Amino acid sequence: MVNIENIHSLTDFRRNASNYVEQIKETKAPLVLTVNGEAAVVVQDARSFQQTLNRLQQLEEELNQLKLENLQQEIQKGIDQADRGELLSGEEVMARLQTRYQAALTNET
After folding, report:
1. What does DSSP assign to residue 16?
2. Where exactly are the structural domains of the chain?
3. Per residue in 17-39, pLDDT tens?
4. Residue 31: Cβ within 10 Å count
5. DSSP string covering 17-80, please?
6. Predicted local distance difference test score (pLDDT) of residue 2
7. What is the tens place of the pLDDT at every residue in 46-104?
8. What is the C-alpha separation between 64 and 70, in angstroms, rounded?
9. 85 phi and psi, to 5 degrees?
10. DSSP 8-class letter at 88
11. Residues 92, 93, 96, CA angle at the centre, nearest 5°?
């Protein structure tokens, strides 16, 4: 989360760049720079930025692992259903798909 006190104009940053860089290094907090009153860029110390990237990569890997585990569970459910003889004919599958497709089209409008 960005601290509202860490929002400054790009012009002010240019004038006082060394002071802002020291502040960023000390606090490890990102600085939002504005252009014409609107947020334009974020300045962050390199180590904190790398830590953020590393954490993002770790979370993406964890999410992918969870998706894979869920997919494996769903496949196993299907195998178990097939083993129990709980199968649908091709016609039943197509009818269900058609119903879902029509419902999706109806929801778009």
Report:
1. T
2. 4-44
3. 999 999 999 999 999 999 999 99
4. 21
5. HHHHHHHHHHH---EEEEETTEEEEEE--HHHHHHHHHHHHHHHHHHHHHHHHHHHHHHHHHHH
6. 66
7. 999 999 999 999 999 999 999 999 999 999 999 999 999 999 999 999 999 999 999 99
8. 10
9. 80, 15
10. -
11. 85
